[in-house]
Design brief:
Elements lengths: L7 H4 L10 E6 L7 H14 L1 H4 L1 E6 L4 H9 L5 E5 H9 L13 E17 L14 E3 L6 H12 L9 E3 L6 H6 L5 E6 L4 H9 L2 E3 L5 H9 L4 E5 L11 E13 L4 H13 L1 H5 L23 H9 L5
Parallel strand pairs: 1-2, 1-3, 5-6, 5-7
Antiparallel strand pairs: 3-10, 4-7, 4-8, 4-10, 9-10
Helix pairs in contact: 10-12
The structure holds glutamic acid.
Length: 317
């Protein structure tokens, strides 16, 4: 929430005008994912400028994209990170965002980095491809996650329903590694920027496989929906998964509301653009991104404050 603090009493005695302080919060995901450190990196940069901007940024760990978008709609978060497919459907009022659940006020600031859907399984589960999931115990992630949204679409593309699984868990991504180690599940889905701590945790504590998510059904999804793209999870990222794993991906987008002030969105966007080279060093998931790619895959209209910052940086006409 934007909270203003009245500073009028102070202003009169100072020569420099004091603006009301702006407190902004960025909704992210599980602490072992990639959204959480990304939100942290953005806030750190924003807070460095707090003397000039009078803005304070804090980060919140959440269930993921769907929660973030809904909480922005409720006016309780100023920013959130969201998968581009979730943001698109929320803006358009499709799927679980139909009718009154639509979020037409959703706006994008920056399309930060690519995420790829990982299907992490224990080697002993014997799962070799998506069709092998029948009769297995799988964590599909919580309903507040974007992972869950994409997973449902992917399972459907393979003609699978939750009822085909021996167990369809709905726990948060952060629980995946422990559940896998404890044999409560055979595998879990996670749409995430790689490499990520969560999957490293699994890979370092038991023998895992990453299952390819590919084939004619996936090609059809990519053709049908503007926000899906093909990609591979590098074989260099996780122990026990030495080959590149083909999968389906989206973008992790910093989103906000049309109700958030232009100046606030401008400052946040400008801060990321001004410090881009340093930002890029902060997480290996940003390895392939460029300033230009930050405009690629936004999936919902860009906020005027973000447009201003991109124009000033010469990245938009
Ligand atoms: N893409 C995931 C989701 O929205 C979150 C990934 C992360 O936390 O890095 O459910």
């Amino acid at each position: 929430m934007n909270r203003k603090i009245a500073t009028l009493a102070l202003v009169s005695t100072l020569s420099v005008p004091l603006f009301a302080a702006e407190f902004i919060t960025i909704g992210t995901g599980g602490v072992t994912g990639t959204y959480y450190p990304t939100g942290g990196a953005i806030c750190q940069m924003v807070n460095k400028n707090k003397k000039e901007t009078n803005m304070r940024c804090s980060v919140e760990s959440t269930g993921g994209s769907v929660y973030n978008v809904n909480t922005i709609k409720a006016g309780e978060l100023d920013f959130g990170i969201s998968q581009s497919d979730t943001a698109y459907q929320a803006f358009k009022g499709e799927g679980k965002f139909a009718g009154a659940a639509a979020v037409p006020e959703l706006r994008s600031a920056i399309a930060i980095y690519p995420e790829l859907l990982a299907l992490v399984v224990s080697q002993k589960s014997g799962i070799k491809n998506v069709s092998d999931l029948k009769g297995k115990k799988i964590n599909l992630d919580s309903p507040g996650s974007g992972t869950r949204m994409t997973t449902d679409v992917v399972l459907e593309a393979f003609g699978l329903k939750a009822s085909d699984l021996a167990l369809a868990n709905e726990l948060k991504s952060s629980e995946g590694p422990t559940m896998l180690q404890d044999n409560h599940i055979d595998g879990y889905f996670y749409m995430v920027g790689h490499p990520t701590a969560n999957i490293k945790d699994s890979a370092n504590s038991l023998d895992i496989n990453l299952i390819p998510i590919e084939g004619a059904n996936i090609d059809a999804l990519i053709k049908k929906y503007p926000y899906f793209a093909k990609g591979t999870i590098s074989g260099t990222f996780y122990k026990g998964a030495p080959n590149d794993t083909p999968s389906i991906g989206v973008k992790a987008v910093l989103v906000t509301s049309s109700k958030v002030k232009d100046e606030v969105v401008y400052q946040v966007t400008k801060t990321i653009l001004d410090n881009f080279d340093k930002f890029k060093e902060l997480h290996p998931a940003y390895k392939t991104i460029t300033k230009e790619s930050l405009l690629d895959g936004l999936s919902v209209p860009q906020h005027p404050g973000a447009i201003k910052a991109f124009k000033e940086a010469g990245l938009l006409k």
